[in-house]
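Lab notebook, bench 4. Still working through the backlog of constructs that have no structural model yet. Next entry is a single chain of 289 residues. Request: give me the structure tokens for it.
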Amino acid sequence: MSKNQREHIALITGASNGIGLALTRKMLSENWQVVALNRSDFPADDRFLQNHLKDGRLRAYKVKDLTDYDSLRHSLEEIKSKEQRIDILFNNAGGGLSELRYSKQGRELHYELLTVVPYIILMELKELLKNGSLKTVINTSSQVFRFTKEFSIDKLEHPKAFRKMYGPYATSKLALSLWTQAIAPQLAKENIKIRSVDPGINNTLRKGKDSGLTAGFELFMKFFSSPPTHGANLLYEGALGKNSNETGVFLFKDRIADLKFTEHAQRVLEKISDIYSHEFLGGSFQVNG
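Model written out:
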């Protein structure tokens, strides 16, 4: 990729930590502008990022809680009022939990954050994407769903059991890749390409923060996994590399890989589209206690 891309703009969610932070640094070093949607501030002692916040090439928008629709709506409206275009949308924000928790809207929190919210962000920022030149969406997924033995849309919203990593986290990432596949033909009519990408195993552990990982895998990640720059590079290549003309595909190690349970893809898309239309746009929801 040529480094003379100052006019290109990437929007990255979850850009202040882990893979998102590494990706932000990479895009800026490639002379991109970066629009960041974060819950936390960028590191105050990072002179590279702080300098770009000052010169305007890095523009940060805060969101209190991505899964709280009032908070998310406010942040997205601010972006739409201040930004004119986006070339690549990186739906990267995420994380794992160690227990079953529910969003303000009454859905399991992994599903809300990892499956539903990326769709909402895409729909809300689609006009900015259409104003850009590359018109590309990259959803950060995970190959952990290869261990998923069964898939049910009802269990996505209200799982009856919980397992770290291999439970709601894995099925929510699978659902993300499924709707990515299902929506591709619709977006193609507007010249928008979309792919889901596995960023590999990266050491994104943060002191004092629940990782949502099993004890064994957390130990493996701490001592043997790659730094977040590895995942950032895979997301970057997923957007701009050899598969840049593909749409609807899932990329694993920068190669197109098969998805499981593709017979559910259209139904997943219909479900989250209904949530977006009736709850986010409609502004109402029912909490399931």
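Notes after review: The longest strand covers residues 33-38. The first helix runs from residue 18 to 29. Flag for follow-up if needed.
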